[in-house]
């Protein structure tokens, strides 16, 4: 409850600060609308915002799930095969040197203006953090556990499934937590580059027509969604991934 | 790091492929308790009789001599304690027997007396209990079967857990258990493996004195008839448990007569305490020599 109270106080403070800037600076509404106006617009245009938000949410959720799945499988593949590590790992690191945003126009060209280019954008942006966090954890299985498994006569594939993967789930979880924050960025960038629906598209449109209040209203919805997504993913991770494999205290 | 692990596994698997799995399934724990106290040769009906181990040679790491040349025999169905100052290669020797050490080169012979391969016939119990924190007690005990792709035998797991006194804790996860209970789960897991050769690497050194002595009694009882090689730093442990006491130093291996009474010996047994004292004195001597060099 203390946490909730401090959260509320902090939000209230931010709103007051915002209002103070608008009032003291005597800023016109097409430069920076006050919180009351934005709240009003949010309420009045709720149907419009909801229509676009649903699209963005769908892109983010699908991108997140595909990214988690693909990242998880890639990490396991890399951890299993030294050949894959030699061939693919440098490529993955190099791909991080390319700003993903720079690829957005090409992705739109290849995948069109629909959902798929945004989903792919979200997937692309979260793939690396998920893969690398999970992969690192998979490579850090405590050596004595592996020794035990070997003496037991275990097959490498079963060691992976019964020991290395469960032991690495907290690493996967930290990748997912990052992904929950990154995925909306990917989807929004995708929408900015080319879309006819979604919060990113709506923000760009509102901005162009000097409806800054609508832009802010969309932004707030997006921010709240991202926070909720992060909280949800965090909860999921704590329940299913972290709790199951507290690494042994001393090995 | 990964290549270091990949190597022994491969050679180990190849060895298994070449020779086949020689240990038949056993039903020993379906037998009355008295079966556990029969002499070693009686085990032949249920599993390959525990062989003795013949080790002779020297170990090298990166062109440096780790230990040897040395020669030793680990008696069939006997409990052998390997005692010595740290860094002398006791654990390396144990890991070589377990088929785990890929970075150490061993020049010489490392055989079982029945000439069958060691792979698939050893079980390991280490200082740390090595329980998987995400598995409950029963599933930890069944880990070996799962890792080999065999159907886990729940009934047998329940019986083995009963023998180590953990019937009331089968559904708990390791973090809900005390250190002694965790080590008993590790013992149950070792028994489930049902291997004729058991390698113990200071399994009780992290336990408090009372728990340690209880674990020692239980382990001697349940592992009787198997060939046991135990690495230990503790002269008291060697004096209580060993049928054979070997002292490993940089110059080689020598044996020391154990107390005459059968193991496990009482903690306050006069002969045992005397042997413990003599062993400690001997160890201090070797350590002093090391330091003066």
From TrEMBL, chain A:
It is found in: Cell membrane. GO terms for cellular component: plasma membrane. It is a multi-pass membrane protein. SUPFAM superfamilies: MetI-like. GO terms for biological process: transmembrane transport. InterPro entries: MetI-like (IPR000515), MetI-like_sf (IPR035906). Keywords: Cell membrane, Membrane, Transmembrane, Transmembrane helix, Transport. Its main location: membrane. Residues 49-233 form the ABC transmembrane type-1 domain. It holds the Pfam family BPD_transp_1. The chain crosses the membrane at residues 49-79, 91-113, 119-138, 214-233. The keyword Membrane applies. Belongs to the binding-protein-dependent transport system permease family. This is Putative aliphatic sulfonates transport permease protein SsuC. It comes from Roseovarius litorisediminis.
Automatic annotation (TrEMBL), chain B:
InterPro entries: AAA+_ATPase, ABC_transporter-like_ATP-bd, ABC_transporter-like_CS, ABC_transporter_ATP-bind, P-loop_NTPase. Keywords: ATP-binding, Hydrolase, Nucleotide-binding, Transport. The keyword Metal-binding does not apply. Pfam families: ABC_tran. It is an enzyme of class 3 (hydrolase). Its EC number is 3.6.3.-. Residues 40-275 form the ABC transporter domain. The keyword Transport applies. Residues 251-272 are annotated as: Disordered. SUPFAM superfamilies: P-loop containing nucleoside triphosphate hydrolases (SSF52540). One of its GO terms (molecular function) is ATP hydrolysis activity. Belongs to the ABC transporter superfamily. This is Aliphatic sulfonates import ATP-binding protein SsuB. The gene is ssuB.
